[in-house]
Amino acid sequence: MAEVAEAARTGVRRGRVVEGVRAYGLIAGMWIRSTMAYRTSFVLTAFGNFAMTALDFVAILLMFSRVDALGGYSLPEVAFLYGLSGVSFGLADLAIGSMERLGRRVRDGTLDTLLVRPAPVLAQVAADRFALRRLGRVVQGLLVLGYALVVVDIDWTAAKVLLLPVALVSGAGIFCAVFVAAGAFQFAAQDASEVANAFTYGGTTMLQYPPTVFALDLVRGATFVLPLAFVNWLPASYVLGRPYPLDLPGWVAFTPPLAAAACCALAGLAWRAGLRSYRSTGS
Amino acid sequence: MSAGSGRLYVAVAAGGFRRYATYRAATAAGVFTNTVFGLILVYTYLALWDEKPQLGGYDQAQAVTFVWLGQALLAALAIGGGGFEDELMERIRTGDVAVDLYRPVDLQLWWLAADVGRAVFQLLGRGVVPFVFGSLFFPVALPREVSVWAAFLVTVVLAMVVGFALRYLVALSAFWLLDGTGVTQMAWLAGLFCSGMLLPLNVFPGALGDVVRALPWSSLLQGPADVLLGEADPLGTYLFQASWAVALLALGRLVQSAATRRVVVQGG
C-alpha cells in the first residue's frame, strides 16, 4: 500500500491515469459484488431503470400514434436519434453517473475520506456506489437503436457503418464530460446538484428529438456552446442523409471524437479547479 | 376535529413549508431544471401540434400552457417522487414509526399536513417562476376571469390531497416489504404516465385515453389543467378529485390499521 501511495504522489501523469483506472476498477468491482449479494433486488432495480427510461420512448410512440412525422422526421428516424442518444448517455451514466452524489459528500464532509486515500479523487467519486442497475438504461437504448436500424431507410456505406460506433463512444465521452463538469460545479454549489439534471437528463431528452423541432438559437447553443449536437444530431444527419439545420459542412459529422476530447479536457480543468477550491466542513 | 388539534396541524404544515424553504440553492436549481425541461418539451409539443392542429381538442397555445403547468406542478405534487414518502418509509423500516403511533396525533393527518406544507412551498418556490417564464416567452392560453383562476386553485389543493393519499399507500407498503424502492419506482412510473406529465391524456389514443382519464392520477395534472384551460367543468372536476381523495384516504386508514396491528405483533 505504501508503494501505491508513493507512486500516486510522485507518479508522472500517465501513472496517475493508470492508477485512476485501476482504483476505479477496484471500487466498481466491490460495488458490483455487493450488488450481486441481493440478485433479486438487482434484477428489479435494473428493470425499474429500464422501465423509467422506456417511458420517454413510450411518449414518442404515443405521439406517432397520432401523427406521421415530427419536425419532418419519421418514427424510424426519431428512433435512430433516440437510440444513439440513449446508448451514449446510458454508458456515461453507468460509468460515472454516481458523480451526482458529490454534493452530499461535500456537505457532510465525507469527501475528506476520499482525499486521504492513495488514489485519484475523481476515480473514487466516479466509482462511488457504482450502480450496475444503470445497465437497464443502456439496454433500453440498444433495443430502440436495434429497432431503428432494422426499420430505418438508409443507403449504407462503409463510412456510415464506421461512424456509428465512433459516434456512440464519442457521445458517451461528451456526456461523461458533462457529468464531471457538473461534479466540479457541486464543489461551489453543494445543494444545487439538480442543475446538472438540466444538462444530463435534459440534454439526452432534447437529443431524442430531431434538431428541426427546436428554435435555431437552441440548436446553436447545443452545437457551439455545450456541444451535445455531436452526440447524435450531427453524425445522424450524415447517416440519414439530411442537411444539418445550421448549414454546417458535411465533414463535421466526423468530428465527434474531437468534440469529445475537447469536452473532456475542459471538464478535467474544471474538476481540478473545483477540487482545489474544496474546503472541508471539518466535521 | 377540535380547534386545538386544528391549530396543531396548521403548525405542522407551516413546519413542512419552512423546512423546504431553507433549501434555497436546491430550490433555485430546481427552478432552472424545470425551466430547461419545459423549454425542451414546449418545442416537441409545438412540433406535434404543428403536424396536427387541434390535437386532443387543444390548440397550440393550450398545449404550451399545459407544458408549463406540468413543470409548475411536478415538484409540488411530487409526481416524479420527492415527497414525504421516503422519510415515512425509513421510519417504518427502522421501527421509529412505533413512537409516532403512540403520539396523541393522527398519523395520516400529521403527514398530510406536513406534505401540504411542502407542496405549497414547492408550488410557490419552484412552480411559479418556470410558469411565468413560459407565459412570457411562448404563446399561452390563460384565462382572464378571476373566477377561473380561483376554481383552478381549488383543483390544485384537491390534487395535493389525492397525490398525498396515493403516496401514503406507497409508503405504507414498507410495513410488508421493508425495502420500498421497487414500489416507489412503480408509483412514479404510474404517476408520470397517467397524470398527463408524459403527454396530455386527451392525446392518448382510444380506450387507453378513457382508462387513464378515469384513474386517480388524472386528478394531479390533467384535471387542474383542463379547468384552467376552460376545457372542463370545475364542479365535475372537484367531484372526481374529491371522490378519489376520500376513497384513497379511507383505504390508507384501512391499510394503516392493518399495518399497526402488525407493528404490535412485531413489537411483542
Automatic annotation (TrEMBL), chain B:
The keyword Transmembrane applies. The chain crosses the membrane at residues 25-46, 66-84, 123-142, 148-175, 187-208, 238-255. This is ABC transporter permease. Keywords: Membrane, Transmembrane, Transmembrane helix. PANTHER family: INTEGRAL MEMBRANE PROTEIN, SLR1174 PROTEIN-RELATED. The keyword Transport does not apply. It comes from the Bacteria. Pfam families: ABC2_membrane_6.
